[in-house]
Every structure is written in C-alpha cells, then in structure tokens.
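Final report, Chapter 2: Outcomes

The project's central promise was a pipeline that accepts a single protein chain and returns its three-dimensional structure in a standardized token representation, suitable for archiving and comparison. That pipeline is now operational. To close this chapter, we reproduce one record exactly as it appears in the project archive, with the input sequence first and the structure output second.
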Amino acid sequence: MPIYQSKNKKPSRADWLRYCALVTMWGSAFALSKIAVAEISPTIVAAGRIWVGVALLFGWMTYRKHRLPPLLPKPDIRWLWFLPVGITGSALPFLLNAYALQVLDSGLVSILLATMPLSVAALTHFTIPEDRMTVTKIIGLLLGLLGIILLVGPTLLRDLGGPFAIAQIAVLLTAGLYALNSVLIHFMPETPPSVSATGMLLIGGLVLTPFAVFDMVNTAIPSVHALVSLMALGLAATGIGSIFYMQTIRSAGPSFIATSNYFVPPFAVFIGVLFLGEKPSAMAFIALAVIFLGIIIERRQKS
C-alpha cells in the first residue's frame, strides 16, 4: 500500500474553508470542556466526546460506502498507523487537556497550546523535505505566539509554574502530541478521511474506556447542561473536526493546519463581541494585527 506524501502545495479554497470551520469548532471546545469537567471527571469527558464522535463518523463513513480496514485473518497495515495516531491525536491529548482545564484558566491553556506550530515546524524540518524550517518561518510563528500572548493577556504568564505546574506541563505535552499526530497523519497510507478519522477515534476510545468506566462508579449523575456540553463537544470539535483535520493535513500539510491554533483565542474574542456585547480593547486589535502579520509571513515564505 503506497504511503501518501503531499507536496504541501498552496492551500486551496476548500482548505481555507475547513481551516475556518476548525477554528470555530476548536475555539468553542474550550468553553464546552470547561463546563463538562466542572461536573464530570476528565477520563469520562475525554472518552465520552470520543465515542460521540465515533458514532457520528461511523454513520458518515457508512453513508459514504466506506469500511474500516479488515482485522482478520490478517490485520491491515493501516491499523498499525491508527494505533499511534489514535493515542497522539485523541486519547492522550483529550485526557490531558480535560485534566488541565479543571484548574487552569482557558486563556493560559490557549497560550500553551499555541506552541504547537513551533513543535510542528521542528518535526517537519527533519521529516518533510518540502517543509524545511527557515528564519522567515520561525519569525512568523513567533509573531503569531506573541499575538496570542498580547490578546489573552501577558499577566497570565505570571501564573506559569506554581501549584499548577503539572497541569501546565500537561498542556505543553498536549501541544507536542498534536504536533506529532499531524506529522504521522501526513505519512499515513492513503485512506479516505472518514475511515482514518473513525479509526483514530476508535483507538482513542478503546484506550480510555476502561479508565472512564472505573471513574463512573464514583461519579454522580451530571446536570443536563454538562451533558449537552459533552455531546456538543463530541459532535463538533471531535467528530466533524476530525474529518476536516484529516482532509486538511493531507491536502495542505501539517504546518498549515498547525497555525489554526493562533486563531482560536481571537475567535473567542469575536464570540464575546457578537453574543455577549463585549467591547475589545485597543490591545486586542493590536494583537490580532500581530497574529495576522505572523501568519502572512509564515505562509509567504512557502510561496
């Protein structure tokens, strides 16, 4: 079976549309996760969102007349890829992120997750010849990270370390896992996105389910509000998001999708203005300008 290796071509209009959709879904995931973990343990939240996503994706995969690769009599080689992709792309990052959001402000979490593009740049430099690290690229990525810090608030950096250092390390590890996952997907054997996304989540769900069942024994029945948040998290950011994620990485490359992390906090600001009547400060507009400048510089060096 051939190994798929994209040329990291210029992103198409479809890539940019999926990119915007992912920013929207991942941006809402912070609030939904925060609501869910207030009443439900991180293992149940992580496993629950995965199984909701699996149910959606399995239905979509069946509708598309696709099937999961065979396991018997001899396992298809793609299962050997689904295992690390599922662990690095769903099981561990979902669990670590849910754990961290129990004690950390979502703004600080967004800053720490915004280190992912830098991790991707380091990994792709050594694994993808068409995506080498350059001075221009690094300048663009660092500008994007600076913009996130300005937008969310530099004062949050004062919270680094201290009693919640383990949770902060968990978020940084999550960013590294997502970076590794995007590179693994880039090199996966050719597989329809609905199949690869279902396989990734299925593995993640199987890994987490025993721990989630153990926690359920001592967990009270959560409120409808928490359950609805968990369901929305599974359907959007996990289910639909996984398909778009797979499609965009295979089409435009890991580095392109990684920069979406820079637009998640700005999306949160936009939601606040649109639905909550909030008024962004002058610093917010400066931060947005810095983020856009960083992305423009990072993308221009590829053209």
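Archive annotation: The two ends are 31 Å apart (CA to CA).
This record, like all others produced under the grant, will remain available to the consortium after the project formally closes.
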